[in-house]
Amino acid sequence: MADIQLYDWNKCTSCRAYRLWLAEEGISFEQRDFFKEPFTEKELRKTIGRTPLADVFSWNSPSFKEMGVSREVLSADEPRMMKLMLAEPRLIRRPMARVGRKLVVGTKKEDLQKALK
């Protein structure tokens, strides 16, 4: 059984480096490339659990910046945020690692090590 469920994108340089680090540390994981296997709304909600949607939205994504919408306006409209994330996976922060009930978003290795304890 894998230690973590990893949600990422194979073409993402940071995600590839993160997977390499996991392998070097001997941390087993099951990977899902959510660009090849997109989330349904139900799956994404289950994956993020109680984590606020705004915490898994990729605010630094060029796709978000091209929209011309302010963070404040969009973060107040969760249904719209969800719809956008499902339509454009680049708007989902990556990688996301599920460790039991904990979700670690981003590439901070310390956060994942803490979740594994």
Notes on the structure:
This protein is α+β, with helices and mostly antiparallel strands and 117 residues long. It has a single domain (4-116), classed as Glutaredoxin (3-Layer(aba) Sandwich). It has helices at residues 13-24, 41-48, 53-56, 62-67, 71-75, 78-87, 109-116; strands spanning 4-8, 29-33, 96-99, 102-105. Helix 1 (13-24) links the parallel strand 1 and strand 2. It is globular and about 40 Å long. The two termini are 17 Å apart.
In short:
The protein is α+β, with helices and mostly antiparallel strands and 117 residues long.
Labels describing this entry:
4-stranded mixed sheet; globular; Glutaredoxin; 117 residues
Task: Indicate the mean pLDDT.
Answer: 94
State the secondary-structure class.
alpha+beta
Q: Point out poorly predicted stretches.
A: none
> How much beta, percentage-wise?
15-25%
Shape: globular
Summarize the helix and strand pattern as letters.
EHEHHHHHEEH
Biggest beta sheet attributes: 4 strands, mixed
State the total count of DSSP E strands.
Answer: 4
